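Review form for a predicted model. The reviewer records the input and the model, then writes brief findings.
Reviewer: anonymous (R2)
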Amino acid sequence: MQTQIDKDFVRWCEDIGQFAIDRPMFDVVDEHNKLLASGSCSFATSWCWEKCYNFKLHKLFPNMEKKDIRNEENWQKITGKDIAFLLSRKRKSIKRFRGCTRGENIKDFKDIDRWEDIAIENPDTEIWIPTKAWRDPFLKREIEKRLFPFTNLAINASVDPTTTEKQWIDLIETGWSTMFVGDDERKTNPLGEPLFKCPKTGVFKLRASDSEEESAWKKKNKGHCAICKAGCFGNVTLKRRTDTLLYEH
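Model under review:
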């Protein structure tokens, strides 16, 4: 029997061509300062808070907080079987699923438990998990121990200009795939190895200078993440560690 989860908790994300979930980025409180939902972005950097496009969306759409409350309630009770059930009931059939497009996928050890269960119950689905939880050494080791062995989990360490070379090299040496954002001109990781340039945020990014033909072609190819075999999904599809350059929104 499935847990009572909102059907729209697992939502179709046109931009990446797959289903995804969201969590609150920061605490949601009422007018009396009572906590309604705990924020998940415990490991956000100064770059995150300055540049994150989701933070900008919150300013534009303050009612997003109501959805954040429901999202966190759903996340705290969802199981791997729930995810499998919800995906099986969707009209679009795709064997890829992304963790949070807004918020942090792994805030604490309970989240590792949950992703482990989701991986077990969805063995034929490629699951993309970007995270900054690597910044906590205890969570980092637990992720490596319990989640790395799953061949259907595309776990990516989210890195940005505040990440030191030492930190990035440590991630590489301990087997992490990385996603870098914050310098569109960067070409290599700290070891001099080339970054894979993300097609979705680069080649297919809509720009004001695009001609009608260019704009139409890019819109036609929207959702490229659904078929991309390199970059963020490299450790699942290519069976090797990857470093991806995401262009800024």
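Findings: Residues 7-181 form one domain.
Further findings: Strands lie at 11-13, 18-22, 28-29, 35-37, 96-102, 126-131, 153-159, 177-181, 196-197, 243-246.
Recommendation: see findings above.
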